[in-house]
Every structure is written in structure tokens, then in C-alpha cells.
Amino acid sequence: MAEPAAVVEETAEAPKKPVDPTFEPEIIVFACHYCAYAAADLAGSMRLQYPSNIRMIKLPCTGKLEVIHLLRAIEAGADGVYAAGCLEGECHYLKGNLWARKRVNHVKDLLAELGIEPERVEMYNMSSAMGAKFAEVATEFTQRIKELGPNPVKREGVSPHAAAREALGGVAMPEDPQEASAAATVEEGLAE
């Protein structure tokens, strides 16, 4: 009896799109206050270079990040979005970063179903002492998004950063001390 002929699978890769050298992606980072945000601060203190197109939103924990927050950032036109939390097993809120990873993976699945590259969303883990890792991740993720090109659902006149902060409601921490004092003044005024 003759053996069946081996089936040869075609593994032709899709041709890569040329990278537009003028394209500067808009990237939103949802960063844990204790680790990733502190790592970004350390990267700045160390004068490490990373792309200026990174817009950070500080969270008390990436566990506060919900699927809708990630999707709203993409819907508003962010070219790439990533969550940056504590090292696995080191979350200040025990399992927040593990919940965030599950939500990020769910968003990747949803984007794939919609025909949008799931690589536009990612989860990274780092400690507050990993300033170099923060800069490396920001640079590598920006390059990945440059290779993917602009977000196919990008709309003119919409700020992805503002839309993402708005979707978070009161979960996002103030961006700077002046904003924090202004928010406190507004809250005090409402309490009277």
C-alpha cells in the first residue's frame, strides 16, 4: 500500500506595508501608579530617551482598567494602547495586574474579530526600578505601531487621550499636582 503524499502548506507571509517615515502614532499608556508610572518617572530622571508620542494615564492599579476603557481609546483613534502594571505576583492590590492582562487579551480577541490588528493593544509588567525597561517598551511598542500604520478607525478632531481619560471617569489619577489641587477645589466647592 502506498503512503499518502505529504501535504505541503503554504506559509507565504503577507507582504509588509512600507513604513511611512512621517507617521507619528498616538499611543495611550494606562500605567500603574506604584510601578510603571514610577518607572516612567525614573526613566525621565535617568534622562533616557523614549518617544514623545506616549501619553500616560495614571491609574491606582491596572486592575481598575476595564475592557471598555481600552476600546474607547482605540475607538477615539489611538493608534496603539498598552497597560503597564506591576510585575506579576507583585501587585500592590494582589491580583489587579492579572485581571488587567485578562482584559487586554479579551480586547485583542475583540479587535481581531473586528478586523483590526490585535497587536495595537498590549500588556507589560515592570517594577518601579525599571526605568530602562519602560523606555525600551515605549520605543519597541512605538516601532510596532509605526509598522502597522494609522488606526483604521481614527476620526479627525477627537483626542484619544481625552476620550480615554473621560471613559475612566474618576478612576484616572490627576496628571499633575496643579490638576490635583484644582480637582480638590472643585470637589470642596461641590461639598458645600
Rg, nearest Å: 20 Å
Can you write the helix and strand succession as a string? EHEHEHEHHH
- Helix content bin: 40-55%
Judged by helices, strands and strand pairing, the structural class is alpha/beta
Counting DSSP E segments of at least 2 residues, the number of strands comes to 4
General description of the model:
- The protein is α/β, with parallel strands linked by helices and 192 residues long.
- The protein has helices at residues 36-45, 67-75, 96-114, 131-148, 160-168, 177-191; strands at 27-32, 54-59, 80-85, 121-125.
- Strands 2-1-3-4 form a four-stranded parallel sheet, sandwiched between helices.
- Helix 1 links the parallel strand 1 (27-32) and strand 2 (54-59).
- Helix 1 (36-45) crosses helix 4 and helix 2 runs antiparallel to helix 5.
- The longest helix is centred in the middle third of the chain and has 19 residues, at 96-114.
- The radius of gyration is 20 Å and the shape is globular.
- The N and C termini lie far apart (91 Å).
What labels describe this entry?
disordered C terminus; 6 helices; alpha/beta; 192 residues
What's the layout of helices and strands?
Layout lengths: L26 E6 L3 H10 L8 E6 L7 H9 L4 E6 L10 H19 L6 E5 L5 H18 L11 H9 L8 H15 L1
Parallel strand pairs: 1-2, 1-3, 3-4
Helix pairs in contact: 1-4, 2-5
Briefly characterize the structure.
The protein is an alpha/beta fold. It is 42% helix and 12% strand.
